[in-house]
Specification:
254 residues; alpha/beta; three-stranded antiparallel sheet; globular
Length: 254
């Protein structure tokens, strides 16, 4: 896949699969965000909302979310799932800076935004004392032996299916991206990072369905992608245990 925008838009081709196979978000995410805010959060803007996996947990708490995404197929699916939500088809970089919000958040989507001017733009979307939240986490196989088997059949076609840190922050750094950028920004303060554990088990086919929505696989030519996913399915046990911890970053506009 070519540009970052093209890769971001590749998800629309699998919007229904994204809705079916991508895990949802726990209420604990909203609990953490609201506790950090320390004041009412009534209106929020979501960056890269996809099919509304995160949108719905905030809406359930009475927050009016404006869900934005560049992909029309994703937004169609979102409106089916969260029909009362206002949707805006746009890249983050093209969104207006008015109105402003109590909260701007991104769920596993911020890495698709351009770094130049990112934090100035987010800050401009927030009311005084407004907050920013970013959360997400990659899904990993819990069993190292199963992971090695998957790596062995995948590696001739795809060296790695992880999403690298956009600013090069090492995986063992105490502060992960985007917290690393937020701490360097003069537009935000009180940067916090926390981890919310997520463990689950699923069928091999459901797990491969999840992989089919990951950008690294979507970037492969269709026949190759199908072959790789079939090879992975062939080395998986019937049920697989998954680690899908969420890393949450919070910051307050200054």
């Amino acid at each position: 896949m070519g540009s970052m925008t093209e890769r971001a838009l590749s998800f629309g081709s699998v919007a229904a699969a994204y809705e079916r196979f991508r895990p949802g978000y726990p209420d604990a995410v909203v609990d953490e965000v609201l506790a950090y805010a320390g004041r009412p959060v009534r209106v929020a803007l979501e960056i890269g909302a996809g099919t509304g996996k995160a949108t719905r947990v905030f809406v359930r708490r009475g927050i009016a979310v404006t869900a934005t995404d560049p992909d029309p197929a994703m937004l169609r699916e979102l409106r089916r799932q969260v029909p009362a939500t206002v949707t805006v088809r746009a890249n983050f970089e093209d969104l207006p800076l008015n109105p402003v919000y109590d909260l701007v958040f991104a769920a596993a989507s911020l890495h698709w935004t351009r770094p130049d001017g990112r934090w100035t733009r987010v800050a401009g979307m927030l009311r005084p004392e407004g907050i920013f939240a970013s959360f997400g986490g990659q899904v990993h196989l819990a069993d190292p032996e199963v992971e090695r088997a998957v790596h062995a059949v995948r590696s001739p076609f795809l060296a790695d299916d992880d999403v690298a840190s956009p600013d090069g922050t090492p995986a063992d750094s105490p502060m992960q991206w985007p917290g690393s950028e937020l701490t360097r920004s003069d537009r935000f303060a009180d940067v916090r990072q926390s981890v919310l554990p997520r463990r689950t088990t699923t069928s091999a086919r459901e797990y491969v369905g999840h992989l089919s929505t990951i950008s690294a696989y979507l970037a492969l030519p269709e026949p190759v992608r199908a072959d790789v996913l079939d090879l992975i399915l062939g080395v998986l046990p019937e049920r697989v245990a998954l680690v899908a911890d969420l890393t949450l970053h919070l910051a307050r506009v200054v």
